[in-house]
C-alpha cells in the first residue's frame, strides 16, 4: 500500500455549512436585552410623551387656543424659564470652582464635601423647599440680615433662583469633575511658568477645554430647573403673574378639574423644554468640534 493511500485527506468544513451558520452575537443575549430595553423605554418614556402630545387635541383646537390666550400661563412659563436660565448661569462659575478645588487641591474634609454635593439628589424636594423657606424667611438665619439690607429672598423670584441653584449645582460639578481629572495639571503649570495670572489660566486654559462639559452641566441644571416643583413652591410665594411657576399652574388646573388646560400647559412646557435642550445639545456639539479642531491644528 502506498503512503498516499494510507493518508486520508483532511476534511475541511463545508462552504455551504459555513455560510449557513449564523454569526454569534459578541454579547450573549444581546438581542433579547435590547428588545426588552426598547420595550421598557417605549412604555415608560415614549408612550407617556405621546399621550401628553395627543391629549390636548382630543377636545378640539378650541381648548388649545384658549390655553394659548391665557396670560397667566405665559407669565408662569416666563418665571420658570427665566429662573432656570439664571440659576444655571450662576451655577457655572460656582460649579467650576468647586470641581477644581476637589480635583486640584487637598481640602480638609474633601470626602465629606464631595458627599455633600450629591445631597440635593438624595433628600426629598419638599424637605429642600421647607428648609430654604425657613432659612431665607424674614426671621430666618440668612433672611433676617438680608431683610435688614433691603433684600427679600423668600416669597419672590429671588427665592426661586436660590432654590434652583441648590438643586442644579451638583449637575455642574459632576459634569466638569471627570473632565478636569483627565486634564493634565502640567498645562496649568506651564501657563504659570509663562507668566499667566490665575484668571488667565481659568479663562484661556481651563475654560476652553471644559466648555463641552460646562454646556452639558448647564443643560442638565436648566432642565432640572424647568420641571422643579417641590423645592420651589414653599419659597416662591406662588403669586400669579409674579412668582408662580408653570408646574404649579398645572397642579392648579388639575385641582380645578380643567384637564384640557393642564395638559395644554404641560404640552407647551414640553415643546419649549425640548427646543431649549436641543439648542444646548447643538452648542455642546459645536464646542466639542471646535475643541477637536484646535487640538488637530
UniProtKB/TrEMBL annotation:
Protein's job: Part of the ABC transporter complex (TC 3.A.1.6.1) involved in sulfate/thiosulfate import. Part of the ABC transporter complex CysAWTP (TC 3.A.1.6.1) involved in sulfate/thiosulfate import. Probably responsible for the translocation of the substrate across the membrane.
The keyword Ion transport appears for this protein: no
Annotated signal peptide: none
Chief place of localization: membrane
Any one GO cellular component localisation term in the record: plasma membrane
Annotated organism of origin: Acetobacter nitrogenifigens DSM 23921 = NBRC 105050
Quaternary organization: The complex is composed of two ATP-binding proteins (CysA), two transmembrane proteins (CysT and CysW) and a solute-binding protein (CysP).
An example molecular function term from Gene Ontology annotations: ABC-type sulfate transporter activity
Stored PROSITE patterns: ABC_TM1 (PS50928)
Transmembrane residue ranges: 29-54, 74-103, 115-137, 149-173, 201-223, 259-283
Topology class, membrane: Multi-pass membrane protein
Classification via InterPro entries: CysT_permease (IPR011865), MetI-like (IPR000515), MetI-like_sf (IPR035906), Sulph_transpt2 (IPR005667)
Protein's UniProt name: Sulfate transport system permease protein CysT
Keywords: Membrane, Sulfate transport, Transmembrane, Transmembrane helix, Transport
Highest taxon, organism lineage: Bacteria
Intracellular or extracellular location(s): Cell membrane
UniProt region (Disordered), positions on chain: 1-22
Keyword Metal-binding: no
Feature: compositional bias, Polar residues: 1-13
Location of the ABC transmembrane type-1 domain: 77-278
Family: Belongs to the binding-protein-dependent transport system permease family. CysTW subfamily.
Amino acid at each position: 500500500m502506498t503512503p498516499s493511500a494510507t493518508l486520508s485527506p483532511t476534511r475541511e468544513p463545508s462552504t455551504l455549512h459555513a455560510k449557513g451558520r449564523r454569526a454569534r452575537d459578541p454579547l450573549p443575549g444581546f438581542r433579547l436585552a435590547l428588545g426588552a430595553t426598547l420595550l421598557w423605554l417605549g412604555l415608560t418614556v415614549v408612550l407617556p410623551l405621546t399621550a401628553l402630545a395627543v391629549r390636548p387635541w382630543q377636545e378640539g383646537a378650541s381648548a388649545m387656543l384658549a390655553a394659548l390666550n391665557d396670560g397667566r400661563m405665559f407669565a408662569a412659563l416666563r418665571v420658570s424659564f427665566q429662573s432656570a436660565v439664571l440659576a444655571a448661569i450662576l451655577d457655572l462659575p460656582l460649579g467650576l470652582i468647586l470641581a477644581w478645588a476637589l480635583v486640584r487641591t487637598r481640602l480638609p474634609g474633601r470626602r465629606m464635601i464631595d458627599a455633600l454635593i450629591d445631597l440635593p439628589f438624595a433628600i426629598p424636594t419638599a424637605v429642600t423647599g421647607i428648609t430654604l423657606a425657613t432659612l431665607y424667611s424674614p426671621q430666618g438665619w440668612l433672611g433676617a440680615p438680608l431683610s435688614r439690607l433691603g433684600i427679600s429672598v423668600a416669597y419672590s423670584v429671588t427665592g426661586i433662583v436660590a432654590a434652583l441653584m441648590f438643586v442644579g449645582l451638583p449637575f455642574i460639578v459632576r459634569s466638569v469633575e471627570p473632565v478636569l481629572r483627565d486634564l493634565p495639571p502640567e498645562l496649568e503649570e506651564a501657563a504659570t511658568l509663562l507668566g499667566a495670572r490665575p484668571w488667565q489660566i481659568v479663562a484661556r486654559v481651563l475654560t476652553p477645554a471644559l466648555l463641552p462639559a460646562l454646556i452639558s452641566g448647564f443643560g442638565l441644571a436648566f432642565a432640572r430647573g424647568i420641571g422643579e416643583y417641590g423645592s420651589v413652591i414653599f419659597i416662591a410665594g406662588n403669586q400669579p403673574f409674579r412668582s408662580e411657576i408653570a408646574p404649579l399652574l398645572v397642579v392648579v388646573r388639575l385641582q380645578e378639574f380643567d384637564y384640557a388646560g393642564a395638559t395644554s400647559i404641560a404640552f407647551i412646557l414640553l415643546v419649549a423644554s425640548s427646543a431649549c435642550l436641543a439648542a444646548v445639545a447643538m452648542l455642546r456639539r459645536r464646542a466639542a468640534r471646535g475643541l477637536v479642531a484646535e487640538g488637530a491644528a
